[in-house]
Design a protein that fits this description.
By secondary structure, this protein is mainly alpha-helical. It contains four helices and two strands. Strands 1-2 form a two-stranded antiparallel sheet. α1 packs across α2 and α2 packs antiparallel against α3. The model has no long low-confidence stretch (mean pLDDT about 90).
């Protein structure tokens, strides 16, 4: 069994946007966490720009509106990628809903950090391992 190399950061970002409405298939652990880092950096940069715009135009709503727009644009990609990541660990995407109960976020975090299943499952072949 051979392990494939992980895609580059730019390839992962492109893949995240091109597969934003793809809720089937599998996503590697590196693909998920690099995209989470990208979203974090994007949202921090957006909030800094929003604060600067708020101070420049002396109105609090510009920054909040900008942040809300960017957050709403990234939520679909993040949910899609999380579902494909859960598929890669052999779990249904419905496990994402466990984060709605107390301490469910910790369980979801454990699921999202698990390694890929090396074998093919109902969501397709492993994107990490080649048999």
């Amino acid at each position: 069994m051979q392990i494939l190399t992980a895609p580059s950061f730019i390839e992962i970002i492109k893949s995240g946007y091109s597969n934003c409405f793809n809720f089937a298939g599998r996503a590697r652990r590196a693909e998920y966490w690099w995209f989470v880092l990208y979203n974090f950096i994007l949202l921090v940069a957006t909030s800094i720009i929003g604060m600067l715009l708020t101070f420049a135009f002396d109105t609090p709503f510009i920054g909040m509106i900008l942040y809300a727009i960017v957050a709403l644009l990234t939520v679909v990609q993040t949910i899609s990628l999380a579902i494909r990541r859960l598929h890669d660990t052999g779990r249904s995407g419905w496990w994402l809903l466990i984060s709605l109960i107390p301490l469910g976020g910790i369980v979801l975090l454990v699921f999202l950090t698990n390694d890929s299943l090396p074998t093919e499952n109902q969501w397709g072949a492993s994107p990490k391992y080649v048999v």
